[in-house]
Hints:
Elements lengths: L15 E6 L6 H17 L19 H12 L6 E5 L5 H4 L8 E5 H4 L12 H6 L10 E6 L2 E3 L5 H4 E2 L2 E5 L1 E4 L5 H18 L4 H13 L5 E4 L5 E4 H10 L1 H7 L12 H11 L3 E4 L4 E5 L5 H12 L5 E5 L6 H15 L3
Amino acid sequence: MDDPHVDPSSRNQSPIDAVVTWVDGNDPDHRLKRRRASGYQEEADQQGMLRTGSSETRFQDNGELYYCLKSIRAFAPWIRRVYLVTDNQRPDFLDAHDELPEDIRVVDHTTIFRGYEEALPTFNSRTIETALWRIPGLASRFIYLNDDFVLVAPTQPSTFFADDGVVLRGTWKRLSRFGPVRMWVNRIATTIVKQTLGITRSMNHLLQMRSAQLAGFEKRYFDVPHVPHPIRTATLRSFFDDNEELFASNIRHQFRSTEQFSAIYLAHHLEIARNRAVLEGTDGVTMINGEMSLSFLLERKLRQIRKGRYAFTCLQGFEKFSPEVQAKIEATLNARMDVH
């Protein structure tokens, strides 16, 4: 008898893994290593280095990973294995066990950068994402999540993958050329938006544009919000096998740089170009942003999460919420995942 909880489209399909990148920036050893690297880069005046790329807040661990992993178990139990990519670290709540759960594997940066050790240490998510496809034993299909991504509703393999392709959520936008002038305008706009709304998304748009251009797009790009990203491992392996120099140049930055592209957004646009992508909107997506002070919007989002109206959320800037608001968000997630 068929199991009603199993997506029929997933039968006879290859397994699907999840890949989560995580760092505990509060770790004294990691902080020291990062500060030494940051001082070296500033003295060297690395071309294109973003000052925000070495910001302390970018590396803070506020417990989001716990909810990320719990949500995978609660709402994507069909995931075969979770690969947690770290820099010689392991989260405390996993360290409480003598052995890791069978479905979780910790992968060190030295593993995915084997043969490219000159790229280490790295404190750059774009650099790390470029090498995720090199995880030993990784399934042919995987879902990439930042550690602050949380599933908040039941999912199936068909939520992320369709036949031989991927399911992407986003909107088409005009692809603008950008050079020194555009970057200057972007910095001014970012400052204004940061001060008025507390958000900085413009650099992410530029990153997506550059990645789309690498895939051959000239007039528009598919703008993807902060959501779990479905990836076909062979797509990135094949691209970088043919473009090893792009791989090497993209991983040489220890901190975020405007010279970089995103391997994740590149993979998305390669799939679109090859007609291997089903494109959907962003109705089931929301962000809980600690840099936003509009409490009535947060209350509305939490109500929608409790009602199951969203599939994914992102806990960005969680440390900026008051302890009372953090507790309210955690209570909502716990109730949603039946974690007590």
